[in-house]
Structure to design on (286 residues):
């Protein structure tokens, strides 16, 4: 009986240590989430505005030709999948990768029909385990990435579209809604989709020409959307981690309560047994 009590006590201490770790990780994720959420929300208006400007340029100018505007026969589709470097984030990576694999099965019959670019070790390792070729990757992004951290991959991804390696490009990432909700999303990046503006349109004057403006803005637009998606993914990651660690802390607390109840019952049973033995011994001597 004493051995059983010691074992339960050891389990209680072990779970308490685990609870301290998960609670600390929850607090760290909450602090990082606040900064990442601010960055993601700040990037949205910039991405929306650059799209609006491009939409106005293309709508106001007829006959402009640019590879990022041309819709061509789809022979190969490029996907940029944004995952995390570390786990302990609930279904953050699993839900996204499951949605992507469903997209692959529904739209492609052969690996020759798609190319994969990956951000994050979790995504990279996932595809390596399944022998799915990766065209390019980037890992080890900081918790608060700057544009310079992803510029090389973004530029290379855009170049793969411009040189005809891919005929269309999609972003696959988690859109941040709140700490509890991250939405796995597959969003077309290129070719640029014109949106019909039914309201009043802002008129711009372009120097030196609309063509020259597009030559600069279109690659920047694609890179900006990639960077914005990375920021959304980071906010989603920390939201998922905070939620997962919060749930782990609550489960640990429940487990400690359960073990403590077992411990008290076992201890009470041991005391009762000792009293019974003492009484039995006294009766035997009388």
């Amino acid at each position: 009986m004493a051995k059983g009590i010691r074992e339960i006590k050891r389990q209680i201490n072990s779970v308490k240590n685990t609870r301290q770790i998960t609670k600390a990780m929850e607090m760290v994720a909450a602090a990082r989430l606040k900064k990442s959420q601010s960055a993601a929300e700040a990037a949205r208006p910039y991405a929306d505005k650059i799209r609006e400007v491009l939409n106005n340029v293309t709508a106001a100018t007829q006959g402009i030709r640019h590879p990022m505007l041309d819709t061509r026969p789809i022979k190969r589709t490029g996907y940029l999948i944004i995952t995390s470097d570390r786990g302990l984030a609930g279904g953050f990576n699993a839900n996204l990768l499951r949605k992507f694999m469903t997209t692959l099965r529904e739209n492609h019959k052969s690996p020759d029909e798609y190319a994969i670019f990956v951000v994050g070790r979790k995504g990279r390792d996932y595809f390596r385990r399944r022998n799915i070729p990766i065209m390019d990757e980037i890992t080890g992004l900081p918790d608060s990435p700057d544009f310079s951290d992803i510029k090389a991959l973004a530029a290379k991804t855009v170049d793969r579209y411009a040189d005809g390696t891919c005929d269309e490009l999609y972003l696959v990432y988690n859109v941040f809604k709140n700490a509890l909700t991250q939405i796995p999303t597959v969003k077309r990046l290129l070719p640029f989709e014109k949106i019909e503006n039914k309201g009043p349109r802002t008129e711009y004057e372009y120097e030196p020409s609309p063509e020259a403006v597009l030559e600069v803005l279109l690659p920047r637009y694609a890179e900006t959307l990639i960077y914005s998606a990375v920021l959304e993914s980071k906010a989603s990651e920390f939201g998922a981690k905070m939620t997962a660690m919060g749930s782990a802390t609550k489960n640990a607390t429940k487990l400690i309560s359960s073990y403590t109840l077992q411990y008290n019952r076992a201890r009470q049973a041991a005391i009762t047994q000792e009293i019974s033995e003492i009484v039995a011994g006294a009766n035997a001597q009388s």
